[in-house]
Amino acid sequence: MGAEFAITVVASKLIDKVVNKLVDKLVDKLIDERATKLRLNMTISLNNLANERVNLLHNFSTFFLFEKSMNLPKELPVDLTMNASANQNTNLRLSIEVKQLSKQVSDATGTLNILREIDFTAQEGETLAIVGASGSGKSTLLGILAGLDTPSEGKVILDGIDIFSLDEDGRAQFRKEKLGFVFQSFQLLAHLSALENVMLPLELRSDSQARNKATEMLGRVGLSSRLQHYPKYLSGGEQQRVALARAFVTEPPLLFADEPTGSLDAVTGEAVIQLMFALNRERGSTLVLVTHDLSIAARCARTIKITAGRLDLGI
User: Fold this and answer.
1) Beta strands in 57-142 (DSSP E)
2) How high is the mean pLDDT of the chain?
3) Is 310 helix (H, G, I), strand (E, B) or coil?
4) Which sign, positive or negative, has the C-alpha torsion 191, 194, 196, 201?
5) CB atoms closer than 10 angstroms to residue 18
6) How many alpha carbons fall within 13 Å on the CB side of residue 153?
């Protein structure tokens, strides 16, 4: 009886050991799987947060009204009004130069690379599409091109100016004078009428013809009868046409558009895209368009693709 009891105890201990080892292995495996999944989710979340930061910075009131609150000079400094001398003697001047552009953010598990060593150029008057899957970094890239976000490494030269050699005030001044922006979510100021929204960038430049120019521009986009309507009384397509009028009214040499049809139905989106390209042809701006729609990208003279933060040369 005593021997049987001893054997039972030993067997029980052996079983406990085996079970404990199996449980430990299973727990370790589950922890590894959870950690991998958690890291992946954190990576996706950080990338989304980076894109969201750009979207928030894109808010029109931040984009233009910042300059007004800072009491910046009405005219550009001399060095901002001059073109790069290296290209003055060529017929096709470079409007955009991006050199070894990278963007990283850090989290508890290490460094997340959002953009990696991006290089490309665009000539004056060229139309360029940036395509890529959601989360690939294309909106982050556009935000950096506009000086709304900062790179970890690299240069962005717009119209001959290294924009990150300027401080934040200088970049805001550059945007006011040189850049038009079309947003996915329109970013109209709710307390201003359609006419007042289009007048705003002109008024910030103390343009005495702001009302006349804005009225003419709204007529060009087919909204002459909606001048005094507030955004909440306009359809999505009408709001985006107001946004187009606002972007083009200052005749900027550079125009950036971030998913301009993303909030519109297919028919309205097609009408807005046709109008945007028509206005761009009339004014000869350099257009950079971020889109996931390859049919829209095909309307541009050139397309570049961003895959996992890198320039994809396989497109």
Assistant:
1) 94-107, 110-123, 127-131
2) 78
3) strand
4) positive
5) 10
6) 10
